[in-house]
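[audit] Reproducing an earlier prediction to check determinism. Same input, same settings, fresh worker. If the tokens differ from the archived copy the diff job will pick it up downstream; this log only records the rerun itself.
[audit] input (150 residues):
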Amino acid sequence: MQVIPTERPDVFEVRGRGELQMAILIETMRREGYELMVSKPQVITKEENGKTLEPMEKVFLDIPEDKVGIITEKLSARKGKMTDLQNHGTGRVNLEFSIPSRGLIGFRSQFLTDTQGAGIMNKLLMDMRHGMVPYLKETLEVWFQIEMEK
């Protein structure tokens, strides 16, 4: 974890690896009596040769066979690309996706709900890549903002 001071003396930027690490820090501080205001998590990007690079992850899923459609749909909407699918004929399927880290923010709880707690998800940080494509929600927000300004 890394704590970075900001221009305001009462605001700090905390960098860590994943939602769980942040949740543990926040809960520990809350139990010690600190009052916190926490902003929406953001992925740390990197500038290289004038291009913005974002972290990419490989996600490995073991899910019930009847949940493949909904999980594939949800990860595709988050810019995930399926790289492997193995159906072993046991009622469970192994999926592998390549996805930007920002696409995984908030996904774990949705995944557990969609698989009714029967899914297993592991992820591995692959590398930094360029080509930050906005999500549909981001695209619509910009479009609405432009329309409102007219």
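[audit] rerun output stored. Observation attached for the diff report: The chain has two domains: 2-31, 49-130.
[audit] end
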